[in-house]
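Posting this for the archive.
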Amino acid sequence: MAERKVLALQRFIKRIIEREVFAPVIAQAEFDPRKVDCRLNWVVPERPQISAADIVRLAEVSAQYGVQYVRPEEVRRMLVKMGFDLIVESAEEMLPVTNS
């Protein structure tokens, strides 16, 4: 949700910068801003690569210090997404675990 807000803010800033900064500078250099087509491009942030060891370590830290950075069901869901086949142990977890 925050990423969508950031993208909307970037689009807004891009329009302002292109219109109020780039266009006057290009016109001052005696070029036509519409023909030059100077654009502000934002770099798309890369998503960090998460390994199973990272997930396990985070779960260990959560258990060790009593701070729930990640809940056990979230750890299970992440591991299933990574391709681990997990065995269901309790009756309330009898629902099928899917990769979606």
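Residues 2-36 form one domain. The two ends are 19 Å apart (CA to CA).
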